[in-house]
């Protein structure tokens, strides 16, 4: 008796592998396959680095209410509200299809617009950051989300403390440190991700402000672990740094996989993210 495929109905469909600064995605176009969906089992199978595909997130392009919609799943099977690097990749696909240099589409956390600004380079309007404790959300009322009451290490001599919290479509916890590369993010990342203060879990970042115009950032991504880059984390870090008067409203955010240009516009409160996209290969899900 044949063993059912963990892919379910997705078996036999075409997919595209792309990445933004090494943050990689399996992208499945479901616009011609209404009713099909990514199950938790399928997402875990596709995200498994020991399997035939391996990626940080699984992305779908769907049609809802007559417009493109981007669905997002982490490698652990959990659904996600936003993914900055994937929005650039999906934006590139949709712009290539239309022949236009700008496109708008929906995500679980709201509308997104993308614009081509060079060869394989896309800028995305990520919308407004959510800064109130109940919007992030936090488990306890916190009047000033620039400084959240979380400590790591001994009570009398914590190693890390007072992170900022920002929601950029998903919750982010940002610790400001003197040396981002010296932090054991693989050890404390999962602890903070699952901290009781974050009922929806959190993406965890360590940010080193190198100047008013540059941030070095490393990210433990909720449901994925340490990633080469995380676009929403870069946006959250710039917002958090500016709120703490550490940077200007526009800065380069240097991640393990490369650099993103982030701007928190004063005119409309929107966060803009510019960075590269890279095509890897096309294939068939088997």
From TrEMBL:
Keywords on record: Amino-acid biosynthesis, Cytoplasm, Isomerase, Lysine biosynthesis
Transferase is among the record's keywords: no
Binding site for substrate: 23, 57, 74, 84-85, 170, 203, 221-222, 231-232
Primary subcellular site in the record, as a coarse category: cytoplasm
Keyword Metal-binding set for record: no
Subunit structure: Homodimer.
Family that this chain belongs to: Belongs to the diaminopimelate epimerase family.
Enzyme active site: 83, 230
Matches recorded under NCBIfam families: DapF
GO biological process, alphabetically ordered: lysine biosynthetic process via diaminopimelate
Cellular component, GO annotation: cytosol
Role summary: Catalyzes the stereoinversion of LL-2,6-diaminopimelate (L,L-DAP) to meso-diaminopimelate (meso-DAP), a precursor of L-lysine and an essential component of the bacterial peptidoglycan.
Pathway: Amino-acid biosynthesis; L-lysine biosynthesis via DAP pathway; DL-2,6-diaminopimelate from LL-2,6-diaminopimelate: step 1/1
Enzyme class: isomerase
InterPro entries to which the protein is assigned, alphabetical: DAP_epimerase_AS (IPR018510), DAP_epimerase_DapF (IPR001653)
Species this chain originates from: Aquisalinus flavus
Site, as annotated: Could be important to modulate the pK values of the two catalytic cysteine residues: 172, 221
A GO term for molecular function: diaminopimelate epimerase activity
Catalytic reaction(s) noted: (2S,6S)-2,6-diaminopimelate = meso-2,6-diaminopimelate
Subcellular localization: Cytoplasm
EC number: 5.1.1.7
Record-given protein name: Diaminopimelate epimerase
């Amino acid at each position: 008796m044949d063993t059912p495929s963990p892919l379910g109905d997705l078996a036999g469909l075409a997919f595209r592998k792309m990445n933004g600064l090494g943050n990689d995605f399996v992208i499945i176009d479901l616009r011609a396959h209404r009713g099909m969906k990514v199950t938790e089992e399928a997402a875990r199978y596709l995200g498994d680095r020991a399997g035939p595909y391996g990626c940080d997130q699984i992305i779908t392009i769907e049609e809802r209410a007559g417009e493109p919609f981007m669905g997002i799943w982490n490698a652990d099977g959990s659904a996600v509200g936003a993914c900055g690097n994937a929005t650039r990749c999906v934006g590139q696909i949709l712009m290539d299809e239309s022949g236009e240099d700008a496109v708008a589409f929906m995500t679980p956390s709201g509308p997104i617009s993308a614009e081509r600004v060079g060869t394989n380079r896309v800028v995305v309007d990520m919308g407004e950051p959510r800064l109130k404790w109940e919007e992030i959300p936090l488990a306890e009322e916190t009047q000033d989300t620039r400084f959240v009451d979380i400590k790591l290490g001994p009570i009398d001599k914590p190693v890390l403390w007072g992170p900022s919290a920002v929601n950029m479509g998903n919750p982010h916890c940002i610790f400001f440190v003197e040396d981002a590369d010296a932090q054991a993010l693989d050890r404390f990342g999962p602890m903070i991700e699952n901290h009781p203060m974050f009922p929806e879990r959190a993406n965890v970042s360590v940010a080193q402000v190198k100047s008013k115009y540059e941030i070095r950032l490393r990210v433990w991504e909720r449901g994925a672990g340490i990633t080469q880059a995380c676009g929403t984390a870069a946006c959250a870090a710039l917002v958090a740094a500016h709120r703490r008067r550490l940077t200007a409203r526009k800065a380069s955010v240097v991640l393990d996989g490369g650099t993103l240009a982030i701007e928190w516009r004063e005119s409309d409160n929107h966060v803009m993210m510019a960075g590269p996209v890279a095509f890897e290969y096309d294939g068939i899900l088997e």
